[in-house]
Design brief:
Elements lengths: L1 E5 L3 H6 L3 E3 L21 H9 L12 H10 L19 H4 L4 H11 L10 H7 L2 E8 L8 H6 L4 E5 L12 E4 L2 E4 L17 H7 L13 E2 L13 E9 L4 E9 L2
Parallel strand pairs: 3-4, 7-9
Antiparallel strand pairs: 1-2, 1-3, 4-5, 5-6, 8-9
């Protein structure tokens, strides 16, 4: 998920919208409500589609890393040497071998070629246009990214999985942000509780075993876009209640968007 917000200049705020780009791995045509999906409800994304602008003619790779690389760099995924891919899995060593995030980053940066100064990335384009940028979730194109890479690609803030091997599970014992490694109490599996594939009785049992997946505290999350409180009366509000069927807890997410 990518965010861009205008910086603290009142003149820019009047003319530039906030931008929230939600990029989903493996989301195919027909899998959202407004495209005919009947099983999984997506009312808030549907509302964005109905009230906003839709683009129906586009191209993207069927694989996660190349499609994100194209989005971040502006290049098609047919450039064989355009995207350096680092091997995933190294960030598990932060829990297995007690390597520090700094030591892991040094190992990754050592094998990556320095990015040419003339290369331009999506985050940088937004920064040059006066935006504060942020990226959350499965970070960069992989398979193991670094703080240096995030900064060079133009992200002021980030939080999520720097390692895509770990990103296939939903219960990480730790994630990474600008401030480094952030531990998440209650999750202990180094593979972040990635489910077994394909679907089998054993996989079902393993997925619903919450022994080491339970957070120790309930969560309340409130997000308000900065510097927009004076426009509350004219903005569109969405409120989502997400039910965690594993822990019988609720996560309420209230956010403000301009469409």
């Amino acid at each position: 998920m990518l965010f861009s917000f205008p910086r603290d200049k009142k003149q820019e705020q009047k003319s530039k919208p906030n931008i929230i780009l939600i990029y989903a791995d493996d989301l195919g045509i027909g899998m959202l409500g407004h495209e005919g999906q009947k099983i999984i409800k997506t009312p808030h994304i549907d509302q964005l589609a109905y009230e906003g602008m839709r683009f129906k003619n586009s191209y993207s790779s069927m694989l996660c890393a190349p499609s994100r690389a194209s989005l971040i760099s502006g290049k098609t995924d047919t450039h064989a040497t355009a995207f350096e891919i680092s091997k995933g899995g190294i960030y598990k060593k932060a829990g297995q071998e007690n390597l520090s995030p700094e030591e892991i980053e040094a190992k990754i940066n050592k094998i990556l070629t320095p990015i040419p100064e003339e290369d331009l990335f999506l985050g940088e384009v937004a920064q040059k246009a006066g935006y504060v940028t942020a990226q959350y979730g499965k970070l960069e194109w992989g398979f193991a990214a670094t703080h240096q890479q995030m900064n060079r690609h133009g992200w002021d803030h980030y939080f999520g999985y720097l390692d895509h091997v770990r990103a296939h599970g939903f219960y990480p014992p730790y994630l990474f942000g600008n401030q480094g490694l952030i531990k998440i109490t209650g999750n202990t599996l180094l593979n972040c509780a990635k489910s077994i594939e394909p679907e089998t009785p054993e996989a079902y049992k393993e997925r619903w075993d919450m022994t080491v997946k339970k957070p120790t505290r309930k969560i309340f999350l409130w997000i308000v876009l900065p510097h927009l409180l004076e426009k509350i009366k004219t903005n569109h509000f969405s409120c989502i209640s997400l039910h965690n069927y594993h822990t019988d807890q609720f996560l309420y997410l209230k956010f403000m968007t301009i469409i």
